[in-house]
Amino acid sequence: xxxxxxxxxxxxVPKVNWTSIEGVQSPLDLSNLDTLNSLGNTSVxxxxxxxxxxSPQPAWxxxxxxxxxxxxxxxxxxxxxxxxxxxxxxDAFYFYFYAFNKGDKVLxxxxxxxxxxxxxNMIRFHKGQPTAIWYSQHASGQAFTYRAVEKQGKRPYAYSxxxxxxxxxxxx
Length: 172
Hints:
The chain is mostly beta strands and 172 residues long. The protein has one helix at residues 5-10; strands at residues 12-16, 19-20, 45-48, 78-86, 89-101, 104-106, 109-111, 114-126, 129-137, 140-145, 151-152, 155-156, 159-160, 167-168. The chain is globular and about 50 Å long.
């Protein structure tokens, strides 16, 4: 299930080298989250108060079932970033947030479980028309021409992997 980014922030503490950071603005929220950049930049990690093996598993970690319009109440579970590439080309990144990622089983052991996961689609527009789409799948993904993918009207489908959240152009 998609997750509310603020719920994630509410259940984490910023750390660098496994040590809580002093001087963090409180409360930390989506409007001031960027202040962490000055406290360690790429070395800052939001570490959950509850670990991935917490029992019972906290409700915030399971995400929120979207309503019939695809909304998760008043929560914010996505972000859109536009990148102008010049020559009338714009890449629109649609990022989706999940509080928990379930890893794969290898030799009957779980690998890759982690708190906090982002996946995305990128649609390339040329002269205002969509021409290509990227489906992220963790460290890789798949690209297609825009006309090749399944759509409802003009909107392309993205199928999210159960537990892993990798995005696919087809179901199953």
